Each structure stands twice: as structure tokens, then as C-alpha cells.
Amino acid sequence: MGLRESFRAGLARQLGHPSGLRGRIVGAMLNRRNRTAVVRAVAALEVAGGETALDIGFGGGLGLALLLDKAGVVHGVDISATMLDRARGAFRGEIAAGRLVLSAGSMTALPLGDGSVDAVVSTNTVYFIDDLAGAFAEVARVLRPGGRFVLGIGDPDLMSRAPMLTDNGFRIRPVAELESALDGAGLPLRNHERVAHRGLGFHLLVSGK
Ligand SMILES: C[S@@+](CC[C@H](N)C(=O)[O-])C[C@H]1O[C@@H](n2cnc3c(N)ncnc32)[C@H](O)[C@@H]1O
């Protein structure tokens, strides 16, 4: 593998599971680069004061910060020990006050009780998940009846033309496939928003239970 391919493979790995010092740098980069998409995703969730919200795969933690401005209690779940550690440092006060609960875990086995949250957001995470049906079933399980789920993804047509992603294990699925998986999990689509983001397209799939 050439230098360029090896750099791309390393970055792609870090995006899916940030770890160590490089992972911390990637976390900061995610907050900068994905800002518009994450801001729009959290806005689409329409969290009201006093609600409990969950960010799955929070990465650099921007979504947690935005949710903390609106929700009563915020949960953050991520598989990356580095991202959890980074967020524990950044949100010490909110954790001590009981407003933020961070847990290690996967979207396919969420460490939360049935019907325990009002709203769930997850941006740029499903590319790393093989068992989509299992993941969406978990989201449906932790949502209370009437709860909302906003899933944010980069435009699949554009992403499938990026070798850095396609050569390095990203699961890029058409919007229709995600919509059908949401439906199968009992989370029918309520709205599909398109967001212009860094010259690329971003999709927000707003669904609910
Ligand atoms: C590309 S980053 C996106 C971070 C943030 N949501 C954003 O849009 O900037 C992907 C994040 O999802 C996490 N992740 C990957 N697979 C996951 C899974 N199965 N369950 C929960 N989090 C996962 C990674 O550790 C990483 O923090």
C-alpha cells in the first residue's frame, strides 16, 4: 500500500473508531467539519426543555453541547474510549450536575432502558454499522412512544464516489434502504431534509415511534 492509501486507510479507521492522540485530533476536526450538519440535525430533533435526549456516536461532542442547551438530561453513547474520555474532560460540570450521562456502547446494544428517552440523534455513524435492523430496533426500544429520531448521513451518491470511504469499509446505503430499515423498526419517516454542507449534500431523516 502506498503512502497516500495508507494515510487514507488510517483516517477512515479513525473516523469509525477514534483512538489515542490521533483520535483526539479527529474528535476536534469532526466538531469543526461537521458543524453545519450536527447543528441542523439537533435543530430537527426539536427538543423541548425537560426532555431526555440521546446522541449515539457523539464523536467530538458538539451534538452533546447543543443538546445540553435544550434538554433536561442528555445521554451520550459511543464505542470509542477516546471520545468518551475527551467528553468526560469537556463536560465535567454537566456530568457532576447529573445533566449528562456518558456510556460506552454500540447503537446495536444501547446501554439504556426501554422507553427511557424522548429524542435520539445520530449523525455520520451508520456507515460503521453492519446490523442496521438491529441498530434501529435498539433506537426504537429506548424511545418512548411518540419519541423522535433524527438520523444524519452524508449524500450516498457523493460518498460512494470517494475511494477513501469505499476502499476502507464504509457502508454507504441509499436513502431508500435506510428509510425502509427505519420503517421495519417501527420508526416511519416523517420528514426528509436536505442540507447543503461544505459543498456536499447531507440528509436528515426525521422519524418517530
Ligand atoms: C464519523 S464520527 C461522527 C461523530 C459525530 N456524530 C459527528 O457527526 O461529527 C463516528 C462516531 O461514531 C462512533 N461509532 C462508530 N460505530 C458506532 C456504533 N456501532 N455505536 C455507537 N457509536 C459508534 C465512533 O466512535 C465515532 O465517534
Description:
- 43% of the residues lie in helices and 25% in strands.
- Helix 7 (132-142) packs across helix 10.
- The protein has a single domain, classed as Rossmann fold, CATH 3.40.50.
- A hairpin with a 2-residue loop joins strand 6 and strand 7.
- It has 10 helices and 7 strands.
- The radius of gyration is 16 Å and the shape is globular.
- The protein has helices spanning 3-16, 20-33, 35-45, 62-68, 81-90, 92-96, 132-142, 156-159, 163-166, 175-184; strands at 52-56, 73-78, 100-104, 117-123, 143-154, 189-197, 200-208.
- With 209 residues, it is an alpha/beta fold.
- Strands 3-2-1-4-5-7-6 form a 7-stranded mixed β-sheet.
Tell me about the biggest sheet? 7 strands, mixed
Number of helices in the DSSP assignment? 10
Whole-number mean pLDDT: 95
CATH architecture: 3-Layer(aba) Sandwich
What structural class do the secondary elements suggest?
A: alpha/beta
Portion in beta strands: 25-35%
Task: Give the total of beta strands.
Answer: 7
Portion in helices = 40-55%
Strand order of the largest sheet: 3-2-1-4-5-7-6
**What is the 3D shape?**
globular
* CATH class category name: Alpha Beta
Regions with pLDDT < 50 over 5+ consecutive residues?
none
Our measurement of the CA-to-CA distance between the termini, rounded to an integer number of angstroms, reads 46 Å
Order of helices and strands: HHHEHEHHEEHEHHHEE
Q: For the record, what is the CATH homologous superfamily label?
A: Vaccinia Virus protein VP39
Q: Kindly provide the radius of gyration, computed on alpha-carbon positions and rounded to a whole number of angstroms.
A: 16 Å
